[in-house]
Design a protein that fits this description.
eight-stranded mixed sheet, disordered C terminus, single chain, three-stranded antiparallel sheet, 311 residues, Probable serine hydrolase, hydrolase, alpha/beta
Length: 311
Amino acid sequence: MDSNEFIDFDIGAPWGRIACRWYGSRQVRPLLAIHGWMDNMGSFARLVPLLPGHLGVLCIELSGHGRSSPYPAGMQYSVIEWTSIIRCVVLHFKWKRVSLMGHSFGAIACNLYASFYGRDHVDMLIAIDLLTIPYKSSSFYINYLANSVERMLTPTPAPKLYTADQLKNARWGPAPTISKEQAHPLIDRCVRQAPDQPEKFYIFRDSRLIHHSLFPPGTGLVRELNRRIRNIPYMVIKASNSNFINDGFIPTFEILRKQNPAFEYHLAQGPHHVLISDPQQLAAWIVPFINKHRPPTRWEHPGELNVISKL
């Protein structure tokens, strides 16, 4: 897929705008890509060109990330809200079904969406280095929520300012393992001009994202959510140098393997942001998975082809 063939546009949401970038074909329903916590659509910039050319990729930015609108003052972010953004996109284009690819917390949002809407609405899911809501004790979630309340009331610190030359050497804080060059697509989505110093810039991140709500379920609810995911082609890729997918997720693996015959698991060598540092490794698994479950010869439902007029 040619990474230069894309269009940028926004979709309206109750709180503002959702920033979108559609790569490749716009004649059929695309693969919807959801980035991770504190990242943006730049996460997929090196992976998208390696994916099959017959299927477009629609990258979106979650609220408070990249160029999407932040939430109004006094409100808190949550994983449930990220799932609602997927629904906003699906309803905007009037898709009958959606194909999903998520990295990190984006993979959790995809997992929740699949558990809410099931096979009738999700025809493929690719999860990169996270799987579902973590299995934690009730006391963990109670303490987490109490801490979130306190941090919500803490004043936001002033952002670090950069000159244009300094920005060229800036690193991406949430992904310290990637190089400066690899960080540029993420940084470019977040650069803002300092209002009082026009010659200076800052990297925008909504500080409220640090204390988002995890949607505190019990272990039983996490299992029940994943039991609702049936007969969906589901690929999970774990990064070897990351602990985001650990032994605590074994019950989820057992459930998903049992209920989804087209379930695949792969171990990628690299860090949590391996989709940026070594996208070729991931593409070797993702490309045949897409070709198998969304092949070039497959015709979409007629109601799903009218995408160009919605941009």
